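Researcher: Please predict.
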Amino acid sequence: MHSSKILLAIDQAQGWLHETKPISEKEISLHALSMILSTQIKDGKQNLNYIIHQKVELPPPFKLVLMSLSEFRTFIHTINFCNPEALYLEPLIIGEWSRILEGLALSYARDRDVLTVSGILRCAIRLKIEDGWLNIVQNFLLDQQQPDGSFGFFKPELVDTEIRLRYMTETLWALAEIYRTRLARD
């Protein structure tokens, strides 16, 4: 059920991507990355590459709540660029991590912060969290898709292509991670 929602969203996203004409180098890069992610999801490939291979020391989970938005985004990007094998979470505290990330995801979702919510979802998957709130966050991201296939609630005439592509890339990356995890489980 959830996988079919993701595949439908990918079809719509690819439609938007095919109609979008990137101009700047950044737009071209984001467009290419979005196309790669959407194709990987549809092809069922699980070869997302990671940049950080050394072990990452995780702070106590309560410290995430004390971070500024900038610090928190830096933290989740560090986790998201890690090879999952470089991350280790004590089984005794995985529930605590899950509760903290769930609260943060729901808080940022309430503020419609798609970029941060996407990062939190990827972070939770990298930390091997498998709680029910991940479905809620996935559905939040899927609900951000517009009829034209893009993601995010804003008037297209007020936002440039680069911002729309950034939302597309971040959302597709989160959907690719959750889809990859589901394929591995099935």
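Model: The radius of gyration is 16 Å.
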